[in-house]
Design brief:
The protein is mainly alpha-helical. It has 19 helices and no strands.
Amino acid sequence: MILDYLRRVFAAAPHVPRVSDDQVRHLYPKYRWQILESTFIGYGMFYLVRNNLSVVAKDMQETLHYQHAMIGSLLAVTAASYGLGKFLMGVVSDRCNPRTFMACGLLLTALCNFAFGGVANYTLHLCLWALNGFVQGMGWPPCGRSMGHWFSERERGLTFSIWNTSHNVGGGIAGVVAAWAALHYGGWQYAFFFPGVLAAVGALYLLVRLRDTPQSVGLPPIEEFKNDFPQGATPEAGERELTTRELLFGYVLFNPYVWVLALANLFAYIARYSMLDWGPMYLREVKNATLSGGGVAVLVLEFGGIPSTILLGWVSDRVGGRRGMVAVLCLLPILAAFTGILFTPAGYLWVDMTLLCVIGFFVYPVINLIVIQALDLTSKKAIGTAAGFIGLFGYVGRTVQAEGFGRLLHHLKAIHGNETAWEVVIGCILGCTLMATVLLAFTWKLKPRA
């Protein structure tokens, strides 16, 4: 009975009779903007209740007597559960209405944050943050479904890149909001309470604004509206909802390039999340930054990727959709920036902030282009499944770095001291960035399906 109810609530919106041509011309731009706006704001809200832990990790250590390894386990368990959730929810979301699916996910993650801030027990914290990570998986897939249905292949690099900056806006604001709430209200708990309230409001907003496919509001499919069909396709082709078996085996698991992109994403996520998860603590322990300085570091890292994600997504369209080539070129300055952070002494925080901005400027286009390239090689009907599969590998990478770096720091600090321990961690990040570069080099010449 419960499963039947959930199927009805989340079922894809049915197609309705086509409106007149005049209404199509009037309504399509309006709805396209509405979809871009609502998925952008909605997904940014997910980050408010996901990127808040790292900002107050040191304060939780001091107040609750948590060790580095315990904080690492919290980060790791949410990364693992999010990767699993993103994959499973991706498969489910390709057959669901994004409006109800995404709103439900945002409300559930808000409730997890309320509960997390309301307890002071490590086992409960571990369980709640694992659950939070899993329901966070309800965020990206419905956005991918919406963008794939409302924007055509030829404009995909630019429009997906504009939408993808919601990661940066939400993630950047998350650090500042969490730090402000903890300082203003006088406790680490408010870094979870305050964002939770904002996320609950965001869930209501999604129910009001988000819509399913163009056909669910009486409009033609995007390929017909933009006259942008893959070679040999017809207006009706590709509009049938695929089965789970078709999604997994027809488009994802038997595609060798999806596996290459997934492995590259694993290492790219280590580069991305190492500074988000550990950057504030690193700057406070090694570079003498304050709590607010750690929050600003997250803001710098996230906001650094906004202009570049849009610009380089557009560039990838202009070079014939060669996303792999652009991604490889982006990874080279990331290698240089991590090397610079390793050798910058304490007392030059502005240099560290500049290098973090460089990392953010180039790492987010890489993550964005990997997903766009997966969509290029699969189908708009399978974007949630493909992105979920690739995201699963990404969050395996995040899990490895969160748990591995936490244990590595705990072990090495006791033997070699604080600074040496952090130097080893930065060296590991450099190695993972190099691996991502090598893997993406295999996709250098790939272009969208003809």
